[in-house]
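Please complete every field before forwarding. Incomplete forms are returned to the sender.

SECTION A: IDENTIFIERS
Entry label: holo-216
Bound molecule: flavin mononucleotide
Molecule representation: SMILES string

SECTION B: INPUTS
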Amino acid sequence: MEFLPSQLSQPDRYKLMIGGIVPRPIAVVSTVSADGRPNVAPFSFFNGVGSDPMMLLFCPANKPDGSDKDTLRNCAAAAEGGAGEFVVNILHAADVRRIAACAEPLEYGDSEFALSGLTPAPSTRVRPPRVAEAALSFECRTVQVIRTNPGAPSGGNVVLGEVVYIHAADGLVNERFHVDPVRLDAVGRMGGIEYCNTRERFQVPMGRAALQQPPG
Ligand SMILES: Cc1cc2nc3c(=O)[nH]c(=O)nc-3n(C[C@H](O)[C@H](O)[C@H](O)COP(=O)(O)O)c2cc1C
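SECTION C: PREDICTED COMPLEX
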């Protein structure tokens, strides 16, 4: 089968992406509105960008009516009405139901913290609270927002942020800065409402050495 994106409907293009680009890490993004009201929502179109400076990105799509999701509105620059800051929280698999609950569309200014039972905790360098239950929290300042189809229903946006402070749960990171994947127990998003855990892992060396390893 072959597909030409311009001949597919937007929902079908979305299904190919969400079902094929898997598993995706989940950023639970906490923000505040310009007048200080907290918001938290999950985003799985999310990844690291680089480590010098330490940058990451996530992608809040436009709402079906073409307007900004609350998270995008809040982390946009002050000149665009936002607070210019956000926190990316990585939660444990045990919290997946509370993560999914945060995707409930609420009125602007109503907090998903109260709805989900997740606990806001003070951040160090930015105004938005971090999530107390998180294994890792990356406090970020928004560097750039790229709007790929401004005002269009489901149009994509990239939020690029510089990490300015990091919180890690006790015992998660060893003296060589390796993150313990068992303690992290991260959860990934697949297509639709399906998720995966990170409990089955295996090692493969890089480059030619990978081919010396017996398959299995
Ligand atoms: C696990 C998970 C991952 C999600 N990933 C994204 C995403 O990458 N981009 C997006 O626009 N919406 C994503 N959503 C939907 C948003 O979380 C949802 O639209 C939410 O209401 C946005 O909240 P806000 O308006 O407070 O920003 C995801 C939902 C879930 C449950």
